[in-house]
Every structure is written in C-alpha cells, then in structure tokens.
Amino acid sequence: MSANILLSKPGKTANGTVNLTGSKSECNRALVIEALSNGKVKVQNVSDAADAVTLSKVLSYKLQVAGDTEEPTTHNTQLTTVNIGPAGTAMRFLTAYYTLQPEEVILTGSARMKQRPIGILVDALRELGAEIDYVENEGFPPIHIKGNLEQKTNSVSIKGSISSQYITALLLIAAKLPQGLDLHIDGDLTSRPYVEMTLAMLEQAGIKHNWEGNVISIAHQEFKETALPVEPDWSAASYWFSIAALADEAELFLTGLTAYSLQGDSVITEIMANFGITSQFKDGGVLLKKEAKPISKKLFDLKKCPDLAQTVIVVCAALGHEATFTGLETLKIKETDRVAALQNELAKMGVKLIEDNETYTLDCGGKFIPERMFIKTYDDHRMAMAFAPLALLIPELEIEDAQVVEKSYPAFWTDLEKVGFKVEAP
Ligand SMILES: O=C(O)C1=C[C@@H](OP(=O)(O)O)[C@@H](O)[C@H](O)C1
Ligand SMILES: C=C(OP(=O)(O)O)C(=O)O
C-alpha cells in the first residue's frame, strides 16, 4: 500500500539543479547484454529505476523477485518463478533471454502485466525453435519457457506496430543464436528510436548489424570486452521541461545530459522549444530557461516518443493550447490505458481529449483551474509525474499512490522538494 501526497508550490518560479537517475531503457538493454556476454560487458551507472533494479536482481542472482502480488516464492532446481512486477521491458527482454538459458522458468508479472500482450514475441520465438506455453491466458503472461532453444530457422517476421520491445528482445539475443537472425519487420514500426538504441548499444558491445529496408540482420558473433555506460533518463527529464513551461520564471540545470543521446525522448528539447523553453548544453548538463513566446505548433506526432505523450498533453492542457496529437496508438497497452487515464484526469479541469480516428485533439473551451485537484495515477508512474507540474497552477494537488514513480524515477518527489515544491501528507 502506498500513500497519497499533497503537492504545492509557493511562488511560480522553478530554479535549481537536478541529478537524474540512469535511463531505464538503456539500463535494461545493458543488463541483458552484460548477462549474455558472460562477463565481457560491464554496465556503468546502473539506474535506480525499480524496473532496472528488478531486472538486475533477476539477471545477477537468477532469483525470484517479489512482484506486487506478493505470492510465495516457488523455487526448485527444475522450475523457477520469476516475477518482474510492472516492468514491461524486463518482461519482454527476459522472454527472449530465457529461451537461451539451460533452465526452465515461469515468467510472470503484476496484474496489469498479465493484460499486456506478449503473443507477437512468443510466436516469433516459437518460429525460431523456442518452447513457450501460456500458463493462464493465450497471448499474455505468465508464460512457461523451457530454455535451451534449438534453432530451426534464422528468418522470422514480426509485426512492428504494437510494441518495439518485441523487436528489441529478439535483437538482444540474435548474436547468441547459432544461425544469427534475419528479422523482417511487418508493417509500420512504432517507437523506432528504441530499436535504434538497441542496435547502437549492441554495436558498442561489438555486435554488428545490417538494416536494409524492413530487415534487420545480425550474424552469430561474440561480444567484446567493454563498458556500457547508461546516460541519465530523458523521459524523466521531460517533467522538468513541463515545470519550466508552466512556471512564470525558470532556470533548471539537469546534470549529465548531453546534446547527443541514444534516447529518442531527448526530442523533448525540440518539442518544448515550442513552449519557450531553451536548452543550453554546457558544464556537463543542460540548462533550461523560460522565454515568453506565443505557442504556434498545433500538431504533435508522438509515435517515436510515446513516453512523452502524457508530459506534452498535460502541458498543452494546462496552457489551454488546443493541439492535436498523433502516434498515440500504443498508449492503451502501457502501464494503464493512458488515453483513458488522461481523459479522466484532464476532465477534472474541464479539458477534453477527443479521439477521432487515431487523432486526438484537446478541447480547452471549458478549462478552469480548481483550488484543489485529486489525480488518480492508475499504477502509472507517468500519470503521477506528468500531472505533478500542475502544482505550479493549482494551489493543492493531491496525487494518488505517490510511490508509483519508483518504476522509473524514485527520487522524483525529493527532487521536487529541492527546487521548492512542498510534498506533504494530504
Ligand atoms: O524499449 C524500451 O525501452 C521502451 C520502448 C517503448 O515501448 P513500446 O515499444 O512498447 O512503445 C517505451 O514506451 C517504453 O517505456 C520503453
Ligand atoms: C511504457 C513504459 O514502460 P514499460 O513498457 O517498460 O513497462 C514506460 O515507462 O512508460
């Protein structure tokens, strides 16, 4: 059980320095690469994100970790149960990873994880030769993985529009497959920068690839000895851009971020430039400043950066900027149905997010700023963090289940306190 908090911000300015934790996306790739490299690759700057801590525990000790179900552990020499809680990347990456291990596991997760589809990845792994069965519902975790994959083919096809994590999972194990892998991506590819991140990190670890048209090929090859550094998390940085956008005056220094990043979410600098936020890379970080500027951009395509959707939509709603958004198709299968969650919570300030044929438009006609607002978080860290900046406008903002932020950014509330937000019991 986790408690709610009451957030407020005396004064409408935001000044200070923030040290962000490592990217959970980079870290979880690095951890799997480290595990597959038999010690040749070492992860540097392991993230504090709970999803990374979970994966690190599973890979380093191969132990069952407790998820939110708190079921008793069942571990014997034949069958281990691994519970990754709400960690989507851990679920998908481990599904592929365990097909290569000389052990049998049941891979499970939180109640929500059991509703997040995995069938597309399981089908591709079965085609490669893996033995995987569903324990409860066809197409969803928990799954029973037999291990010791005997490769039947090096060529598989996978649908690209549901989650890029399936593709990353296959690419991460590709070099270990005796025949390598030719992965054909069918149709649209969503969240493309995450696939590019995977290939770039594999490259750093000595694994070459060839991407031609819709086929990514990785031959069987060895990892090289190297360190894999994890950059600070740009998705976490996005909430500081929101704060700058909603403050009257802001000067925020985010340490460790650089102009070139493997993370597609670094595009937040470009997105927020539309809201008058300048990003200056200097002194080992990025300095955000606020300039008064009329907002003209009306259409935001977030297909390459779905984790920024809540950040950008909440800022537009708070500023009464009636923008249109595309590329939100995958939001419905994330930690919660993020479209529904946004619609419910924005309605509390009179804003509508209207869905029309894969296009979403904000209607701010009825917008008002309440004296107090209660934000439900739906077990979704990004609901808590995307709405928190509203404390610059709303005198009392109660946020449900504050601990939910642990998934990617455990220090979020203490970092807010450092720049002058008040975080209290409601
Ligand atoms: O590969 C990754 O690290 C991620 C890919 C994205 O998921 P989808 O590919 O399912 O959109 C993103 O939303 C998630 O937070 C992290
Ligand atoms: C979608 C997310 O995570 P995952 O899919 O890894 O659970 C996220 O962090 O926004």
UniProtKB/TrEMBL annotation:
Phosphoenolpyruvate binds at K24, G88, R116, Q165, R338, R382, K407. It catalyses: 3-phosphoshikimate + phosphoenolpyruvate = 5-O-(1-carboxyvinyl)-3-phosphoshikimate + phosphate. Its main location: cytoplasm. It is an enzyme of class 2 (transferase). One of its GO terms (molecular function) is 3-phosphoshikimate 1-carboxyvinyltransferase activity. 3-phosphoshikimate binds at K24, S25, R29, S163, S164, Q165, S191, D307, K334. The active site is at D307. Pathway: Metabolic intermediate biosynthesis; chorismate biosynthesis; chorismate from D-erythrose 4-phosphate and phosphoenolpyruvate: step 6/7. It holds the Pfam family EPSP_synthase. Keywords: Amino-acid biosynthesis, Aromatic amino acid biosynthesis, Cytoplasm, Transferase. Belongs to the EPSP synthase family. Catalyzes the transfer of the enolpyruvyl moiety of phosphoenolpyruvate (PEP) to the 5-hydroxyl of shikimate-3-phosphate (S3P) to produce enolpyruvyl shikimate-3-phosphate and inorganic phosphate. NCBIfam families: aroA. This is 3-phosphoshikimate 1-carboxyvinyltransferase.
